Amino acid sequence: MDPTVLIREAELSGHRVDVRIEGEFIAEIEARLEPMPGEETIEANGGALLPGLHDHHIHLFSLAASLESIACGPPETCDLDALENAITRAARASGGRASGLRGAGYFESVAGPLDRELLDRLCPDRPIRIQHRSGSMWFLNSHALDALRLEQTNADLLPEGIERDEDGRPTGRLFRLDAWLRERLAPRDEVDLSAVGSLLASRGVTGLTDATPTNGPLEIDAFRKAQASGALAQRIVLMGSLELHEASSDDDLCVGPYKILLDEPALPDFDRLVDEIRAAHSMHRVAAIHTVTRSEILFAIAALEAAGVRPGDRLEHASVAPPETLETVSRLALTIVTQPNFVAERGDAYLAEVETIDLPYLYRLRSWIDAGIALGGGTDAPFGRPDPWRAMRAAVDRRTPSRAVLGRGEALSPERALGLFLTEPSDPGGALRVVAAGRRADLCLLDVPWRKARIELEADHVSTTIRNGRVIWARPHEHAAL
Ligand SMILES: [Zn+2]
Questions:
Q1: How many angstroms does the Cα of residue 281 sit away from the middle of ligand 1?
Q2: Three-class secondary structure assignment of the chain
Q3: pTM for this prediction
């Protein structure tokens, strides 16, 4: 017989119940269930029992790297002195070894545009590479550039995106070369995903959609290995290139949308984009188009309309959505996956930098729902913080870091905000998963009833996370086996 787990006195839809899990599924839910000999028991003490959360837009490998990276942008690092201190501390912490350093989250407000000369001054004795907050740019010092052997490599073999000065010397700025850099400096199979897995489990996350456009067979292998070793307990949907095949899908890991990155001002050829969307559809895959600016969202919608929409086609972020997009997105029945946490993380910068006319259209939530559009939530970690609860809080209060309110009319109720993370992985904005007998036991148990949790929306209230019937995270001292 499958091992069983009994959760006692959990709050489910306002009632106190006992829940028995058998193997990977919920077996029984009753007002009172007698513990069986040898059964693992979890005392919920009236805490709310929710379906496990699904983060519909995240980047696992980048998150793993960022956990080991120097924080090079606000709020941790706000000026040149702070950046220098952070780099010096990291160099000291790595001991006498002249191993390379990695930074993340850089933003121009810290010290303007970075280049190799500035980085050589800040870090003269070892390689350092720093990623821009947008994820689209890297800054390298001379040691790091040497490690890439640019001088020794035939120029025809080098990709576009390595910026050079008038003398042909690399400036240290690399654009959209994430995958190329990684192959040379940090291969996938050497990355340890266990810290990411347990961090997300501690926030009640039992599933995630990795939205990295370059995901391919290498990433499938690395994720499968991490799941097999237990480093990563979450269920994964993998967006990525057209090289990914549905055939490699199962319940733990399945191939999801074909991810398309738009990058204004260099928007792709319209007809080619339409062909790409059609190619994805013909392989039974939906398209997920990254749209951050006004022209990107209009371009993406026009391309989807021209290609013909497949149910499930989605727009990622939809950061700026002018009024006319509500009508077309609704008519085409597109899905939106957005990140309310950016209001809490970058809201003040938006208020200062975004054109006034676009401010009311930023990170819409309520307008999508009112227009009958399927809306799902993700954190975009590590570009946003890896905490769905923080995203829910921002969806409810719409507060920027300085507590200003951004788009009050877009606020959601706590229940709607929670719902952004409760649908099936393949159906953001669709029907909510529920805790019921016969369902897969992917669960998030809180230490307080929902009426209290809904006010705070704090990850600290997660006490136990269960995936496929197995406890994958429990807050220390609160999970006792009898
Ligand atoms: Zn993303």
A1: 21
A2: CCCEEEEEEEEECCEEEEEEEECCEEEEEECCCCCCCCCEEEECCCCEEEECEEEEEECHHHHHHHHCCEECCCCCCCCHHHHHHHHHHHHHHCCCCCCCEEEEEECCCCCCCCCHHHHHHHCCCCCEEEEECCCCEEEECHHHHHHCCCCCCCHHHCCCCEEECCCCCEEEEEECCHHHHHHHHCCHHHCCCHHHHHHHHCCCEEEEEECCCCCCHHHHHHHHHHHHHCCCCCEEEEEECCCCCHHHCCCCEEEEEEEEECCCCCCCCHHHHHHHHHHHHHCCCCEEEEECCHHHHHHHHHHHHHHCCCCCCEEEECCECCHHHHHHHHHHCCEEEECCHHHHHHHHHHHHHCCHHHHHHECCCHHHHHCCCEEEECCCCCCCCCCHHHHHHHHHHCECCCCCECCHHHCCCHHHHHHCCCECCCCCCCCECCCCCCCECCEEEECCCHHHHHHHCCHHHEEEEEECCEEEEECCCCCCCC
A3: 0.86
